Amino acid sequence: MSKEITSKTKLKKSPDVAEKTGKETLIFDVVAGRLYELNETGRILWSLCDGKHAIDDMMKTIREQYDVSDSKVKEEVFSFLKKMLEAGLIR
């Protein structure tokens, strides 16, 4: 899936995804039969893929959690979200 995303884009989890949260977050792509395990940053971003939070909001949340430069946060957040889009896990 090739969707253009900007800092104002709001993303949602795909309905074809099952998730298990707790100490770890596991995402199962029902259609592709693939399982993904998210790290702490991925879990935060995944939880914000609710259609209500823009990518700007996600970057702000990550900056508040970690002592990382704005450019690094932007790079990491966009990279993660693009991979999730390409895998069809978010839309």
Defining key terms:
single chain; 91 residues; alpha+beta; Arc Repressor Mutant, subunit A; three-stranded antiparallel β-sheet; two-stranded antiparallel ribbon; 5 strands
Write the layout of secondary structure elements.
Blueprint: E1 10-12, E2 17-20, E3 25-29, E4 34-38, H1 40-47, E5 50-54, H2 55-65, H3 70-86
Antiparallel strand pairs: 1-5, 2-3, 3-4
Helix pairs in contact: 2-3
Describe the structure.
The protein is α+β, with helices and mostly antiparallel strands. The chain has one domain (13-86): Arc Repressor Mutant, subunit A, CATH 1.10.10. Helices cover 40% and strands 24% of the residues. It has three helices and five strands. The strands form two sheets. It has a three-stranded antiparallel β-sheet with strand order 2-3-4. A hairpin with a 4-residue loop joins strand 3 (25-29) and strand 4 (34-38). The longest helix is centred in the C-terminal third of the chain and has 17 residues, at 70-86. The protein is globular, with a radius of gyration of 13 Å.
Number of domains: 1
Total beta-strand segments: 5
* Integer-rounded radius of gyration: 13 Å
- First-last Cα distance: 8 Å
